[in-house]
What we know:
By secondary structure, the chain is mainly alpha-helical. The protein has a single domain, classed as SP0561-like, CATH 1.10.3910. 60% of the residues lie in helices and 0% in strands. It has helices at 9-15, 20-25, 34-37, 41-48, 52-66.
Amino acid sequence: MQITKESIICDVLDYAPDTAQFFFAIGMHCLGxxxxxxxxxxxxxxxxxxxxxxxxxxxNDFLAAKN
Length: 67
């Protein structure tokens, strides 16, 4: 799975639950909330004032290392 800014958080978490650590690191501690899980990565980063490109790179690098 390739993660993009348009990726929906619940899809990422369903695919790889251990990516939750990266969302926690940007202050997104509400991963169980339906509205948070339904957001795109771009939307979540905008709300939390973080760089979506940096988060996506971290997640994609992590997933690539697992394979």
